[in-house]
Amino acid sequence: MNKLYFCLLLLAITSCKKEEPVTKKAPSIILSDERKVLIDTAVINSFKNENVKLFYLSSENKTVWGNLKKRKFVLNQLKKSEKLGLNPDDYHVPKLIQYEKNISGLNDKQLAHYDVMLTYNFEKYLTHLYKGKLNPKLLYRDWALEEKSFDVNTVLIKDFNQNHLDSLVEKIQPKTLTYKQLLKSLQLIDQFPDDNIKKIESAEKITLNDTNPALINIKKRLFYWKDLTGRKDSLTKIYDTKTFESIKRFQKRHGLAADGVIGAGTLNALNFTKKQRKQQIIANLERWRWYANDFSKNYFIINIPNYSLNVVENNDTTVVRNVVVGTYKRRTPILTSRLKTVVFNPTWTVPPTILREDVVPAMLRNRNYLSRKNITIYNSAGDIVDPFEWNPKKPHSYRYVQSPGYNNSLGLMKILFPNNYSVYLHDTNHRDYFGRHNRSLSSGCVRVENPLELAQHILNDSLNNWPKRKIDSIITTKKTTNIKIAKKYKLYQWYWTAWSEKNKLIFRNDIYNLDADLYSKLRN
């Protein structure tokens, strides 16, 4: 019996013992024949970085950068990090260069510190290239991107051992076209000279053949950005035809209405300096490092500031749509998800923000407001409430549901996808909005142009056929109908305001004022 008690006690102690965390050990580092010294663990620990500790465990705490070619490669990468939109100051480049100049005279302790410092900064650089310097989850409440994990030690040691460091930097960067276009943008803007053109001001719109003193600096700006070419003796106060055509080119590059009218939006874009545009490009490069490196086989990608949706299938863009996105106060969230369901004839339940800011004030003015919009009030028991019996002191104790139909706020269909923001893609009863150039007009959801055609496109697959007449027959019933999307589509609802096309810089209005703030955080 005593033996039994002893065994039970031993089992209890063993089961309660705290489980040690499993640390992934990096592969061993193959050291060169050049000078090696043993590194004091105090030197390694002074960098307060777990990756660095694990890295040197793989070399038995010996220095690894004895090979001059490998060392020079790392130093050159860090020195030219600015060409990739990064900040050389983040990697202590001057201090590293000073160590390298004095390499032959370094004692063992100095050499050890140089070696660890080189590793620490190169791993930081690689991490910044792979997933960005900053964490968007710590910056924004309305960003929900998939986590990007990066085992920097395994990646670095593998290429270190195989002498492939020269391909490592290229390999870990995003492969997407937009990212490559942004790197090209950085090259292009660096080719422009420093600009010192005065701020352009005009109290009124300028149209063809007008005379306005602001046109002199406007033309200087157009010459600077190469939208206007030819002789510069045309710097007059007259808005001539040649300048008119160059303004339209400028407007098109900036996503403005290319009508040749110089209004507030065009003047604002013209007043951006080279420095500001370069900072904008760098901010966008950081964002693209936050995004997924690889796209799904089939996906929807929405660029919020460009008001555009593209459907891409097997690397081919099959559908392009204009969209309406959230206002500055009611922003469309940035997220990655998967499309799940098409809902025809959806009802619309008034969300809390719209209830508080729009519905309650309107109901206080006119109790028939909701009835005119075909919205029914329900109490907590599910009973219909007469608008004149509605209690304005407890507006959140009711549900407000709009019946299906052409004039429903969601229009005739919506597309659902999992997210924490209660947003979706949908039709709208304000279909005239798609003709505007500024389409930051919604309450957060994305409204899609010609949505029934889009629904037909994504529901058609090898097993299902969805002709237009089939969808029309469902719409006619005015009955809410849910159809699961059989084909797998990822949704990338993202935000970028700069890129390049055919060696031309392309910019969009930063509708949520994110660019300057992000750049400031990157450099501080």
Automatic annotation (TrEMBL):
GO molecular function, one term: carboxypeptidase activity
Domain of life: Bacteria
Annotated metabolic or biological route of this protein: Cell wall biogenesis; peptidoglycan biosynthesis
Gene Ontology terms describing biological process: cell wall organization; peptidoglycan biosynthetic process; regulation of cell shape
Gene3D superfamilies, sorted: L,D-transpeptidase catalytic domain-like (2.40.440.10), PGBD-like superfamily/PGBD (1.10.101.10)
The keyword Cell wall biogenesis/degradation is annotated on this UniProt entry: yes
Start and end residues of each L,D-TPase catalytic domain: 298-474
The keyword Methyltransferase is annotated on this UniProt entry: no
Catalytic residues of the enzyme: 426, 445
Keyword annotations from UniProtKB, A to Z: Cell shape, Cell wall biogenesis/degradation, Peptidoglycan synthesis, Transferase
Pfam families xref list: PG_binding_1 (PF01471), Scaffold (PF20142), YkuD (PF03734)
InterPro entries documented for this protein: LD-transpeptidase_YkuD-like (IPR052905), LD_TPept_cat_dom (IPR005490), LD_TPept_scaffold_dom (IPR045380), Peptidoglycan-bd-like (IPR002477), PGBD-like_sf (IPR036365), PGBDSf (IPR036366), Transpep_catalytic_dom (IPR038063)
Family: Belongs to the YkuD family.
Name this polypeptide is given: L,D-transpeptidase family protein
Organism, scientific name: Flavobacterium geliluteum
Taxonomic placement: Bacteria, Pseudomonadati, Bacteroidota, Flavobacteriia, Flavobacteriales
